[in-house]
Design a protein that fits this description.
5 helices; 3% strand; two-stranded antiparallel sheet
Amino acid sequence: VEIDGLIESFRKRSPPPTQEDYDNALERLFRDMDRIRGRTLNSVKFELIHVECDGIKNSLLRKAMEIVIALQDLLATQLNDENNRIIQRYKEIHRRIGVEPSTPEDLQRLKEYIDNVGEEMSELADAFQHVSAGNELLHKYQYTTEGDDFEQYWTAYEWPKKVTQVLEDSDFKYREYRN
């Protein structure tokens, strides 16, 4: 079994794999590895021959573990990409609401944007929840998140607080500017 081809066909399937699909695939692989360990004998004796099965057993287990790691890496990459998009959207919101209006028209545009940003924040919270669920899935199967991905996750976690603080400051500045 060529692992790269298997992972690529999993990634490219239509519709794209969901976290449930990843969970099912990983669960099946771990179950199969347990079956190989528990049901496959290390050797088999027949009347005239003795067959050693350790090599085949270990090869199957090694190949299954390579597939598990490749699936986990694929999911981790997808979650990291989604996390990057979330952070970029938060940065854009932060940039737009942090602008000091110089004209009444700018102030009005800022006010309209701030009034409508709640919906986008809600979408971002849902997207981050999806990333969190994916990370929980990875941890369920003892996947160790790389340091950069771990830091990036917590960076995305902190963005709503930063944006909320700027929104509160903007609301105060808006009232101050109007007066």
